[in-house]
Amino acid sequence: MLEIAKRTALGALLLSVMPLLIWLSGWQWQPGASGPGLRFLFWMTETVTRPWGILTSAILCAWFLWCLRFRLKPALFLLAIMITAIVAGQYTKSWIKTLVQEPRPYVLWLEKTHGVPGDRFYQLDRQVVERLVADDNHIPLWLKRHWAFETGFAFPSGHTMFAASWALLGVGLLWPRRHRKTVALLMIWAAAVMGSRVLLGMHWPRDLLVATWISWMLVTLATWLAQRLCGPLTIPPDEHQEIAQREEEKKS
Question: Does residue 203 carry a catalytic annotation?
Answer without folding.
Answer: yes
